[in-house]
C-alpha cells in the first residue's frame, strides 16, 4: 500500500488536536536546542493528545463522519486489495468494448483461497479522479462487475466487493441504461451460488453503491457512510438548501452504528483512532481478518442455503409495524 511523506490533510474538527501536536513538536525542538530534558512533560502531552484524539473521534456527528469517509487519503479499493491479497491480477473490460476505470476488479488469493475482488476506485489527485470519474461508475462499469461475478460463480470462487462511491455516474450519456445495469446486477447477484461479502470502505452512495452491494454479509468500516442519497442532495431536494446537509445527514441515518441498529449492515469494522487514513495497514489487517472469518462461516453453506439466506436478509430490510390507537 502506498504511503505519503506529506503532512496529513486537516479536517475542521481536528484543529484542536493539530494545535496540541504542534505545541509538542515546538517544545521538543526547543528542548533539543537548549539541551534540556523535558521527556516527562512530552509524554504527558502525548498522552493528552491521544486522549483528545479518542474523544474527538468517538463523538463525531454524521456530517463529520462523512468528512472522514471522503478523506482524500482514505485507503481505496486498490489499496486494500494490494494489502490483503497474496496474489492479484486485475481484469479489464465488459465484453461490450468498454473498460470503466471507476470500477475495478480481478482475481486473487486471500488466505490461500482464490477469490474475485472488485470495487469502486477513486483517484488520488485531480487528474486521477477525472480519469476514474471520482469513483462514479457508468453502466459499463456495472456490466464489467457482473462479468467478473459470473466468472467467480462459474469457477466456485467467493466474491468480495468494496463500496466507495458518491453514486453512479450522472452524465447524460451514462444515464442511458444506468438504472437498468444496476437493477440487472441486483437481480443476478441474488442468484449466484458462491459466498458474497460486501464491505463499505468509504462513501456508499445511492444506487451506485447498491450495484455491487447484494451479499450474504454486509460489512462497514466504523467511519464509513451508507446512504440512499448524499446529504447535500437530500437537503437540496427537501429544503432547496444544500447548506442543511448536516441536518439531512442526521435524518438519513448514514453512519455505521445507526445502520447496524436498523439491520442494514451485519458487522462494524473498527478503524484506527483518527480514521483509516491515519494507519492504512492497520485498517487493512482488520479488514482481512473480518473477511477471512466470514468466509470461513459461509463456505460451509450450500449454494441453495446461500441464496435463501441472501434473499431473506434483504426481505427483512425496511419491515415495520403499524401501531393503531
Automatic annotation (TrEMBL):
Main location: cytoplasm
EC category: transferase
EC number: 2.1.3.15
One GO CC term, this protein: acetyl-CoA carboxylase complex
Lineage top rank: taxon: Bacteria
Reactions catalysed according to its record: N(6)-carboxybiotinyl-L-lysyl-[protein] + acetyl-CoA = N(6)-biotinyl-L-lysyl-[protein] + malonyl-CoA
MF terms (GO), sorted A to Z: acetyl-CoA carboxylase activity; ATP binding; carboxyl- or carbamoyltransferase activity
InterPro entries xref list: Acetyl_CoA_COase_a_su (IPR001095), ClpP/crotonase-like_dom_sf (IPR029045), COA_CT_C (IPR011763)
GO terms, biological process: fatty acid biosynthetic process; malonyl-CoA biosynthetic process
Signal peptide annotation: none
Location(s) in or outside the cell: Cytoplasm
HAMAP family: AcetylCoA_CT_alpha
Record protein name field: Acetyl-coenzyme A carboxylase carboxyl transferase subunit alpha
Record lineage: Bacteria, Bacillati, Cyanobacteriota, Cyanophyceae, Nostocales
Amino acid at each position: 500500500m502506498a504511503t505519503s511523506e506529506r503532512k496529513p490533510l486537516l479536517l475542521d474538527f481536528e484543529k484542536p488536536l493539530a494545535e496540541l501536536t504542534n505545541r509538542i513538536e515546538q517544545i521538543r525542538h526547543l528542548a533539543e536546542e537548549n539541551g534540556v530534558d523535558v521527556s516527562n512533560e512530552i509524554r504527558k502531552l502525548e498522552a493528552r493528545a491521544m486522549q483528545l484524539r479518542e474523544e474527538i473521534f468517538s463523538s463525531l456527528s454524521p456530517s463529520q463522519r462523512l468528512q472522514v469517509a471522503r478523506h482524500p487519503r482514505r485507503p481505496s479499493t486498490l489499496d486494500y486489495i494490494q494489502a490483503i491479497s497474496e496474489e492479484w491480477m486485475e481484469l479489464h473490460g465488459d465484453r461490450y468494448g468498454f473498460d470503466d476505470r471507476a470500477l475495478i476488479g480481478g482475481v486473487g488469493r486471500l488466505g490461500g483461497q482464490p477469490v474475485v475482488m472488485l470495487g469502486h476506485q477513486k483517484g488520488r489527485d485531480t487528474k486521477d479522479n477525472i480519469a476514474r470519474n471520482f469513483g462514479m461508475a457508468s453502466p459499463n462499469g456495472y456490466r464489467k462487475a457482473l462479468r467478473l461475478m459470473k466468472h467467480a460463480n462459474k469457477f466456485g470462487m467467493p466474491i468480495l466487493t468494496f463500496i466507495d462511491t458518491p453514486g453512479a455516474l450522472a452524465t447524460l450519456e451514462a444515464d442511458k441504461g444506468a438504472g437498468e445495469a444496476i437493477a440487472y446486477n441486483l437481480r443476478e447477484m441474488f442468484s449466484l451460488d458462491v459466498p458474497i461479502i460486501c464491505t463499505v470502505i468509504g462513501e456508499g452512495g445511492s444506487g451506485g453503491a447498491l450495484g455491487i452491494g447484494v451479499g450474504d454479509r454486509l460489512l462497514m468500516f466504523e467511519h464509513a457512510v451508507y446512504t440512499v442519497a448524499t446529504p447535500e442532495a437530500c437537503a437540496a431536494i427537501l429544503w432547496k438548501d444544500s447548506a442543511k446537509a448536516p441536518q439531512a445527514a442526521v435524518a438519513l441515518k448514514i453512519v455505521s452504528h445507526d445502520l447496524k441498529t436498523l439491520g442494514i449492515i451485519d458487522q462494524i469494522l473498527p478503524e484506527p483512532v483518527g480514521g483509516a487514513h491515519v494507519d492504512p495497514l492497520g485498517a487493512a489487517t482488520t479488514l482481512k481478518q473480518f473477511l477471512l472469518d466470514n468466509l470461513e462461516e459461509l463456505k460451509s453453506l450450500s449454494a441453495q442455503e446461500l441464496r435463501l439466506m441472501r434473499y431473506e436478509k434483504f426481505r427483512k430490510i425496511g419491515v415495520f409495524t403499524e401501531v393503531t390507537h
